[in-house]
Write a structure and sequence with these properties.
The protein is an alpha/beta fold. It is built from 12 helices and 14 strands. It folds into 2 domains: 213 residues, Isopropylmalate Dehydrogenase (3-Layer(aba) Sandwich), CATH 3.40.718.10; 137 residues, Isopropylmalate Dehydrogenase (3-Layer(aba) Sandwich), CATH 3.40.718.
């Protein structure tokens, strides 16, 4: 019987991106050898590095390679050198174009609190107990893609427009509801229906889809400002949360603090097929780039999501997640988690490469 072979496109990106992607790549190679499949990697430019090399944040060759892949693993994009508001292209524009170009409309961001890291959060332990939630963010609609004007004739006016259609709402709600059906069967839909017309459509369509297709999943509607409060006050009460693009972007960064560090949270961007884009939710962190101290665990956990959602390698995905948990339980920490103690208050602070190596040691054991 032939071993399956998968094509993975790596987009290391900017800042710490290349460092964390390399640790994820090595981890994928280790798990592939253990579970009997092969991976073929290609590396392409996207983000600020692509602007420098090609004059565009998303070269056509990169997008074409991603379309032909089984999965795409991204590090991070952006940095101060490309942040000028009047720049004709910016790294973040390439990321939006990549999601749109691959028709990846649902971003899955799991927030799992490892027991060993409960002290990393600024919230009380009693609030954090039992936190295990999934945020599903709509990716290709809303205010990021609606009609806009950078500035008016006198330079003192600009606008962005939040636009949603029924079909855009239906498909992301289905993804979220299907995920909830596999978890605790509770879906929280976030909107601003008391003010925004687009949110009133969101709420109406969500209710219709749930009543018609997912009567076995409990649905609640929560206004986005209230949700921002509830995520801090009672995060363990939520199972799956679905939100439009802007709201989901903001709420998932807030939810990152439940886990104690943005360096711990992976994500998967999915569409209708199996092709997905996998990336940590943190940024490029240019201030620590090249120092070898970035936390690679979010990217390694993103690689686990890649195995699960795009390659169908569930056992391999679980093996990576278990190895990460074992590394943390043994007291290994990157500098962003240095103050969080391990067993018997033992902590060993290690760099990017060393943390990746520890995970692979547990993975191969």
């Amino acid at each position: 019987m032939m071993r399956p072979t998968y094509r993975i496109v790596l987009l290391p990106g900017d800042g710490i991106g290349p460092e964390v992607v390399e640790e994820a790549r090595l981890t994928l190679e280790t798990v592939a050898a253990r579970f009997g499949f092969d991976l073929r990697f290609e590396t392409h430019l996207m983000g600020g590095c692509a602007i420098e090399a090609y004059g565009t944040s998303l070269p056509e060759s990169t997008l074409a390679a991603c379309r032909q892949a089984d999965a795409v693993l991204l590090g991070a994009v952006g940095g101060p050198r490309w942040d000028h508001p009047q720049a004709p292209d910016r790294p973040e524009r390439g990321l939006l174009a990549l999601r749109k170009g691959l028709n990846l409309f649902a971003n899955l961001r799991p927030v799992r609190l490892f027991p060993e890291l409960i002290g990393a959060s600024t919230l009380k332990e009693s609030v954090l107990q039992g936190v295990d939630l999934l945020v599903v963010r709509e990716l290709t609609g809303g205010i990021y893609f609606g009609p806009r004007q950078e500035a008016g004739p006198d330079g003192d006016e600009a606008y962005d427009t939040m636009v949603y259609t029924r079909s855009e709402i239906e498909r992301v709600v289905r993804v979220a509801a299907q995920a909830a059906r596999q978890r605790r069967r509770k879906l929280t839909s976030v909107d601003k229906a008391n003010v925004l017309a687009s949110s009133r459509l969101w709420r109406r369509v969500t209710g219709e889809v749930m009543a018609r297709e997912f009567p076995d999943v409990e649905l609640e509607h929560v206004l986005v400002d209230a949700m921002a409060m509830h995520l801090i006050r009672r995060p363990a009460s939520f199972d799956v949360i679905v939100a439009e693009n802007l709201f989901g972007d903001i709420l998932t960064d807030e939810a990152a603090m439940l886990a104690g560090s943005m360096g711990m949270l992976p994500s998967a961007s999915l569409g209708e097929g199996t092709l997905g884009l996998y990336e940590p939710i943190h940024g490029s962190a240019p201030d620590i780039a090249g120092k070898g101290i970035a936390n690679p665990l979010a990217t390694i956990l993103s690689a686990a999501m890649l195995l699960r959602h795009s390659l169908g390698q569930e056992e391999a995905a679980q093996a990576i997640e278990t190895a990460v948990a074992q590394a943390l339980a043994a007291g290994y920490r990157t500098p962003d988690l240095a103050g969080v103690t391990g067993p018997d208050d033992r902590v060993e602070v290690v760099g990017t490469q060393a943390m990746g190596a520890v995970v692979r040691q547990f993975l191969a054991a």
